[in-house]
Design goal:
The chain is an alpha/beta fold and about 250 residues long. Helices cover about 40% and strands about 25% of the residues. The protein has a six-stranded mixed sheet with strand order 6-7-8-3-9-10, sandwiched between helices. Strands 2-1-4-5 form a four-stranded antiparallel sheet, with helices on one face. The protein has helices at about 5-10, 50-55, 80-85, 105-115, 120-130, 150-160, 180-195, 205-210, 230-235, 240-249; strands at about 10-20, 25-35, 40-45, 65-70, 75, 90, 165-170, 195-200, 215-220, 220-230. The structure holds adenosine-5'-diphosphate (ADP) and magnesium ion.
Length: about 250
């Protein structure tokens, strides 16, 4: 396959994806293609399957029907996921930094252990991305010495240190005090502008309007509405989405 063919294909493709937890169906025939460089915001009520959807993309959950293809590899088993592990980064609601390591050490860990970078290369890379999230001066501190907003920016820098092609965000600002949300959204907005492929689960509709190429609205395990952000916000097609935005705005 030539490069141009690869580039025009979606970097993420979900076809008729379903996922059960026991008898409960958390995803119902989900279809979603994401193009290289596209920014997709996923919203929907609690329990609608948003986390399950993005966790299936990096195989933190296994789908039980349908096809998921990521960066050219169909996720048929864990070995397939290993092939694309480095393509996909994820930022969680909880920052999950190692408390006993400094910020710099937290960032060097993956590049050293997983990518095999030398200590110097890992450090240079970590400092570059700390600079990018505007927190380079905190490199030698421990996570507990940073605010929640700073810790989440570190978590974003840690993902960037692995130089993924796709970044998944699962409610990255939900655990933050209100005054810290903006600084994290600002970093994410900058990233979006840099051409990173992003899927962001968030209820921050201001961010969604500014950044999303497409909005996805989920309810009860289904994608109920999907479309360009400006269309979806100005004229929602489904009643459920209209009600949802009215509630949260
Ligand atoms: P959202 O992120 O939209 O709040 P989730 O994807 O976390 O929703 O969950 C969708 C549904 O699947 C919920 O009803 C949730 O309780 C259920 N669920 C999620 N993870 C598990 C699990 N590991 N075991 C059983 N049920 C789960
Ligand atoms: Mg969730």
């Amino acid at each position: 396959m030539t490069t141009s063919q690869t580039e025009t294909k979606p970097i993420i493709s979900m076809e008729n994806v379903s996922k059960h937890f026991g008898d409960f169906q958390a995803l119902k025939n989900v279809n979603l293609d994401v193009a290289l460089g596209e920014r997709v915001v996923v919203c929907g009520p609690s329990g609608s399957g948003k986390s399950t959807l993005i966790r299936c993309i990096n195989r933190l959950e296994r789908h039980d029907a349908g096809r998921i293809t990521v960066d050219g590899t169909e996720l048929t088993n864990d070995a397939a996921m290993e092939k694309v592990r480095g393509s996909v980064g994820m930022v969680f609601q909880q920052f999950n930094l190692f408390p006993h390591l400094t910020i710099l050490e937290n960032l060097c860990l993956g590049p050293r252990r997983v990518l095999g970078l030398s200590p110097k290369d890992a450090r240079d890379r970590a400092l570059t991305y700390l600079e990018r999230v505007q927190i380079r001066d905190q490199a030698d501190k421990y996570p507990r010495q940073l605010s929640g907003g700073q810790q989440q920016r570190v978590a974003i820098a840690r993902s960037l240190c692995m130089e993924p092609r796709i970044l998944l965000f699962d409610e990255p600002t939900s655990a933050l005090d209100p005054e810290m949300i903006a600084e994290v959204l600002e970093v994410m907005t900058e990233l979006a502008g840099s051409g990173m492929t992003m899927i962001v689960v968030t209820h921050e509709m201001g961010f969604a309007r500014r950044v999303a190429d497409r909005m996805v609205f989920m309810d009860q395990g289904e994608i109920v509405e999907v479309g360009p952000a400006e269309e979806v916000f100005s004229a929602p097609k489904s009643k459920r989405f209209a009600q949802f935005i009215n509630q949260i705005l």
